[in-house]
């Protein structure tokens, strides 16, 4: 079967760095997405990785290792507004998105 | 950037009535749109893939007659929850991809619609 695993919840301190991991097993691979979702709102796009390596975009970076079926989202200089759920999603060989359950990130002052 | 507009954002209805939710791509054309349902503290659950000009493709376990999907144009898809019951109360979200971006293009989400059935 196909599955995406990510931690249910993480806590970090304002100004610090946090890494959210995602491991996956899917039928084929056409890229991995990270989305941010605030409570009661729809997800917003953060990053897309299809090749191995690190993609940096401001305070957020995303890493992919296809051989290990592994990705992480790195958030630097955490701000209170970063408190949200972070969804990992993998596009399989049929170009269907398989979603993880999301990681709820709690930022403390 | 591309915008997907979803309406209404919140709707409360009585049990047994039908509710229509609209999903529009505002500045791009979308051959395909996706409808999701999200339960509290749960991930997105794909309900169906809406295809312009043809029948929607429903995921296993999703009742076609219960959740009617119409994709009449390249910018509009509608989801109608028929004979709604309290268990249909949920957060419904649509998404769309610019047809020019191909299958791996960014997926844009609507704002979501919170349905409460009394």
* SSE order of chain B, one letter for each helix or strand: EEEEEEEEEEE
Helix-strand topology string of chain A: EEEEEEEEEEE
Number of strands of chain A: 11
Oligomerization status of the protein chains:
heterodimer
Short characterization:
The complex is a heterodimer of chains A (109) and B (118). With 109 residues, chain A is an all-beta fold.
Per-chain topology:
The complex is a heterodimer of chains A (109) and B (118).
Chain A: E1 3-5, E2 9-13, E3 18-25, E4 32-37, E5 44-49, E6 53-57, E7 60-65, E8 70-75, E9 84-91, E10 97-99, E11 103-108
Parallel strand pairs in A: 2-11
Antiparallel strand pairs in A: 1-3, 3-8, 4-5, 4-9, 6-7, 7-8, 9-10, 9-11
Chain B: E1 4-7, E2 10-13, E3 19-25, E4 32-38, E5 44-51, E6 57-58, E7 67-73, E8 76-81, E9 90-97, E10 107-109, E11 113-117
Parallel strand pairs in B: 2-11
Antiparallel strand pairs in B: 1-3, 3-8, 4-5, 4-9, 5-6, 7-8, 9-10, 9-11
